[in-house]
Design brief:
With 310 residues, the chain is an all-alpha fold. 77% of the residues lie in helices and 2% in strands. The protein has helices at residues 3-29, 37-53, 58-81, 87-106, 119-127, 131-154, 157-167, 169-174, 179-205, 216-231, 236-258, 268-288, 295-309, and strands spanning 110-112, 207-209. The longest helix has 27 residues, at 3-29.
């Protein structure tokens, strides 16, 4: 793999890291399987690309993707909490609706941005840096701010309530916490991050496509699981960093697989499924092959500790 391809793959992995952070927030923190992300990623790309194509400042166009993504998550939350629609179905309904909305926003299936300025081009012109360095700096800055922001938020009283809703919703309700509001808020924040990811990916790749959201949830879940299994950290900051690292590992694995001659691009979904399966079953397999501790030795140590205490 060339250095240029390696660098571009890592940047793309970091851009998808925003998506992975959003999936982590719902899947791990809120314990909610949200399929809205398959629609909110192209939503962010669609609104940003359309506005840039029509002459709007790229920074403003990118920022507008955030509240629209949050609105998509809000709708999913309302469907689930107010109308008792299951989490899976509520996400599917919003995702299907967003397909038509995204197509209406774009007006066509694909919008090219190759002859239009993006946030990366503006930063490159302002600083004099090369395109690659500009993309790297902006991507790293957005990821660092997002990780630190989520870390600080999850340690606030509101963030603790959000974490508690995912851990034990019944207990939180008994303490007077409105868990429905926590779910809506979590879904809104998650999809805001996903839409921002879509906005930046569209500008990095030079186009927005109506079908770019297909399989987004699989990419997010694969990256979350790979990051957790590979790094195995337990702290909140460590887990947030791990899932971003998982996104990079996933992109690197995809890039390496595509260089194998007998692997076709159409095989990527199968490869992703196999990769996630391996990541999921690896802890179970490792436990089965873990040596059983010597009980007699443990009893001797416990007895020695008891005698020392007396």
């Amino acid at each position: 793999m060339s250095l240029a391809l390696l660098g571009n793959t890592m940047i793309l992995g970091l851009l998808y890291g925003l998506l992975v952070l959003g999936v982590f927030l719902t899947f791990r923190i809120l314990n909610y399987a949200d399929l809205t992300v398959d629609g909110s990623l192209p939503l962010g790309a669609a609104i940003t690309a359309t506005l840039i194509f029509n002459g709007m400042n790229p920074v403003l166009a990118t920022l507008l993707a955030i509240p629209l993504g949050a609105a998509a998550g809000f709708i999913t939350g309302i469907l689930h909490t107010r109308f008792s629609i299951t989490p899976l179905l509520s996400g599917i309904l919003t995702m299907i609706g967003l397909y038509s909305i995204n197509l209406r926003i774009m007006g066509r299936p694909n919008i090219p941005l190759l002859r239009h300025n993006t946030v990366f081009d503006l930063f490159s012109s302002a600083t004099g840096l090369s395109d690659f360095l500009s993309q790297t700096v902006i991507t790293l800055a957005v990821i660092v701010v997002s990780v630190i922001g989520l870390y600080l938020f999850l340690h606030t009283e509101l963030g603790q309530a959000l974490r508690g809703t995912g851990d034990n919703e019944v207990m939180l309700r008994s303490l007077g916490v409105n868990t429905d509001r926590m779910k809506i808020m979590g879904l809104a924040v998650s999809n805001a991050l996903v839409a921002l990811s879509g906005a930046l990916i569209a500008q990095y790749q030079g186009f927005a496509d109506i079908n770019m959201g297909i399989g987004t949830i699989i990419i997010g879940l694969a990256s979350v699981i790979i990051g957790e299994v590979a790094l195995g950290v337990k702290s909140i900051l460590g887990r947030l960093s791990a899932v971003v690292a998982g996104s990079i590992i996933y992109r690197l694995a995809i890039a390496l697989v595509l260089r194998i001659h007998f692997i076709e691009y159409t095989d990527l979904k199968l490869f992703t499924a196999l990769l996630v399966t391996i990541a999921l079953i690896s802890p179970v397999i490792s436990k089965k092959f873990k040596p059983v501790p010597n009980l007699s030795l443990l009893e001797q140590k416990a007895g020695a500790a008891e005698r020392a205490g007396n």
